[in-house]
Structures are given as structure tokens and as C-alpha cells.
Amino acid sequence: MYRNNIFKADTGELYVLDFDTSCRSFPVYDIALFCNETDYFTFHEDAYDKTVCMLEQFLKGYQRHRSLSREEKEAILDLLAVYHFQLQATIIEIYGSDCVDDEFLDNQLDWLYRWKAQCASRAVEP
């Protein structure tokens, strides 16, 4: 569940859009996507802090209804890296391999390395 795929109509009704990667997955994966403040195409230094802030706010309400194990909490930021590479597979599946080039893939790999380093250097318990 990605929050940018939820549309609120003028009537107040909510609509979920974009089912291209719908699947049965771990509930914590939905949390990761819902709290995601990263940009798929560009690495932003402040995205980690924004994501952690969103995650902290989200978990305040969520954990009143369902607890998360330490392992689940620790996996949330790692799952965002998985999400970025899942999007690559989806893009290639839909548009074919000609829609990406070496530079695009190198930029995505750079994003992953920078995200990994940022997560390791700022390790906080959500």
C-alpha cells in the first residue's frame, strides 16, 4: 500500500489506484511503503530523516492495534531498498528492457549504496 496511490474524492470517498504490483506480502512491507519519503529516481540526503519521522508518527497509532517485533521494525528501512529494485523490475516488465540503460541502472545502484550507508550510519530504532 503506497499512500500516493490513495485518492480522496471530493465526496470524501477513498480510492486505491495502481494495482500493478499488488500482492500478498508481509504487513511490515505495507508500513515501509506507506512511510516511504524517498524518491525513486534521485537520492536525497534528507529522505532518510523524513522517512524515519513519518515512520515514528505512523507507529504511534499502528502499535495501539498491532505490535511489531524488533526484527520487523529493523526490516522496514531495508524493505525500502527492496521496493526500489521491485520498481525496476516492474518498469522493465511493462516497458521492456529498452526503457533502461546502463546509466539508469548505475544510478539505481548508487542509490542503493548511499541508502545502505545512510541506514548504517544513522541506525536508530523506529
Automatic annotation (TrEMBL):
It comes from the Bacteria. InterPro entries: Kinase-like_dom_sf. Gene3D superfamilies: 3.90.1200.10. This is Aminoglycoside phosphotransferase domain-containing protein. It comes from Eisenbergiella tayi.
